[in-house]
Amino acid sequence: MAEKTLNPFEIAQQQLKTACDKLGADDAVYELLKEPKRVLEVSIPVKMDDGSIKVFKGYRSQHNDAIGPTKGGIRFHPDVTRDEVKALSTWMTFKCGVVGLPYGGGKGGITVDVNELSEGEIERLSRGFARAIAPIIGDKQDIPAPDVNTNGQIMSWMVDEFSKIKQQNVPGVFTGKPVSFGGSLGRTEATGYGVALMIREAAKKKGLKMEDLRVAVQGFGNVGSYAAMYAEEFGAKVVAVSDSSACIINEKGLDVKAVMKHREENGKLSGFEGAEREEHRDEIFKVEPEVFAPCALENAITSENVNDLTAKIICEGANGPTTPEADKVLYDKGVLVVPDILANAGGVTVSYFEWVQNLMNYYWSFEEVQEKQEKLMVDAFNKIFEIMEEHKVDMRTAAYMMSIKRIAEAMKLRGWY
Ligand SMILES: NC(=O)c1ccc[n+]([C@@H]2O[C@H](COP(=O)([O-])OP(=O)(O)OC[C@H]3O[C@@H](n4cnc5c(N)ncnc54)[C@H](O)[C@@H]3O)[C@@H](O)[C@H]2O)c1
């Protein structure tokens, strides 16, 4: 049966309520967190290449700033709505809280199909959005970053526009910039590296040795490819990876760097010569590994395929890859699901490092960045694992509980309740 689709903001509010109830939090905590503190809706006029004017709708939601400035990406997509942006900003509050970053959640978006725009139109739209949200953002106030269909170039235009308005250079107001323009080394690898770190820690808890692990990774983009590469570097065998084009399988272990090279040259996994077998992309659910890492899109593991999975560990590189129904089945089967808000927090963690480096104007080596990321994420994993065992809940609920407890304490100290 197909799962019920809920408005994303209603889902975020439900998850918040469950965790607040489990924590026994004061009613005021739910009341303070159930709605963003501020949502700005803007109209952005853009002069198109043909001389006409088009007006786009954009949003910036700042969910909670009890712990520090708000932080979260900006997406350019036709499906962007006010409620989606509000939900994503709520989830960012939890994600930052999980790794203990000194931020609350924010998110922004423009309702637009970028495929219909020229590069010049995208630049004018990006600069227009930066001007429109300039009154409420800043390196000590709200720090946006890239998300779906936005990138380092777009962040650079926005930094330039914001700096012109403020009449000073403010590189730390946006993260996800190219390394040559104040970005951090290690950011490209960060999310996948974090996923592999979480696989390693989860395996330790399950009493499994990395050398004995067979890993399958769904999705071979930024997150999936680096998750597979580092899992292999930590000693595991990556037996299958998939993308939209195919699932490639090698029981003896794929050479992940060779797969990355093939994907770079051909734009897809299909046709990789080092595979024993090439199947339909959904065969990834049937390869029976010890670890499954969904790193593609949301709603990948559903009640329809959850019973095909034999993995003992699921590490969610993607956002929202497991439906609530499938999550319950996995919990009942004793599968350890490392939740998205922890497993893919490497990205926002290194964005935080980028911001710190911008504020200091002093830049770290790649090794220093990865070392700092490892410490933050492994500590967070261990703390959440303890909460999970103490309260006999799944790891997702434990992660929400830890995060909400931190925010609730800050709100209490500020005298908000
Ligand atoms: N990039 C980051 O730093 C970051 C951080 C946190 C969370 N995430 C989340 O991770 C997920 C992936 O992000 P990304 O940046 O790697 O995106 P990406 O566009 O680089 O890669 C997505 C990959 O998924 C594949 N894919 C799509 N549909 C598929 C299917 N049905 N079966 C198998 N493969 C499929 C694509 O072919 C591609 O290889 C998203 O949910 C994103 O929100 C990304």
Describe this structure in words.
This protein has 13 helices and 12 strands. Helix 3 (82-99) links the parallel strand 3 and strand 4 (104-111). Helix 4 crosses helix 5. The N and C termini lie far apart (43 Å). The chain has helices at residues 8-23, 27-33, 82-99, 119-133, 152-166, 187-205, 222-233, 256-266, 324-332, 340-343, 346-360, 366-391, 395-413; strands at 38-47, 53-62, 70-77, 104-111, 142-146, 214-218, 237-242, 247-249, 277-279, 291-294, 313-315, 336-338. The protein has 2 domains: 34-181, Rossmann fold (3-Layer(aba) Sandwich); 189-342, NAD(P)-binding Rossmann-like Domain (Rossmann fold, 3-Layer(aba) Sandwich), CATH 3.40.50.720. It is of the alpha/beta class and 417 residues long. The model has no long low-confidence stretch (mean pLDDT 96). A 7-stranded mixed β-sheet has the order 9-8-7-6-10-11-12, with helices on both faces. Strands 1-2-4-3-5 form a 5-stranded mixed β-sheet. The structure holds nicotinamide-adenine-dinucleotide. Residues 191, 218-224, 242-244, 281, 295-297, 317-319, 344, 347 line the site of nicotinamide-adenine-dinucleotide. Residues 184-415 form the Glutamate/phenylalanine/leucine/valine/L-tryptophan dehydrogenase C-terminal domain.
